[in-house]
Write a structure and sequence with these properties.
Length: about 220
Amino acid sequence: MKKIIDFFFDISIHKTIYFNLYYFNFKTAIKFPVFISKNVVLKNMSGQIELPNNCKTGIIKIGFKSIGIFDHKRSKSIWELKGRIIFKGNSFFGQGTKISVDRAGELVIGNNLSITGEVQIVSVKKVLFGSDCLVSWDCLIMDTDFHKIFDSNNNILNQPKEVIIGDNVRIGCRSIILKGSKIANNCILGSGSLITNHLSDSNSIYAGNPIKKIKENISWAL
């Protein structure tokens, strides 16, 4: 009951109405598939959102409280969408989650993504989450270095590269996933992990900086 009460105190009615009417046709918007918290800053809404077929009310929640270690009054979520986001199903973005998708960028969200909070996702090319993923707090996921590096012939050395996260992946707190990373299905990333390459073995635990496999033939559940 307390969670229900907290949710209704946390939701912004006018932001939720505005968000849904802005992005979706009227028939879809009046279902209110997206709920927006009071602590969400709608910085840029020039991009596009694609929803699953026959979407239901509140399948996507952005900026809501999840755990007690955050400053619920001051922590802000940022929504900056210039490109495209594709939702495949239910998604929860906890408070302080910051999403930035550039004009040529794409963010694909598999069904049942859960983000605890204070996570930053940046896409200038493509970031993809599979289904049933869990992202703990204070993580950074991005497919770009932002600042360009050139060789002697003025060729760009650090082009953006896609980030692909498989199904049923759990990402530990304060992990960093950088451009070109690919994570196999059914994996766990330990807290503070740094990922810059392909983690190709499924059903494994990876951890560390540099990242390495520390356990295989595992499974996990919420």
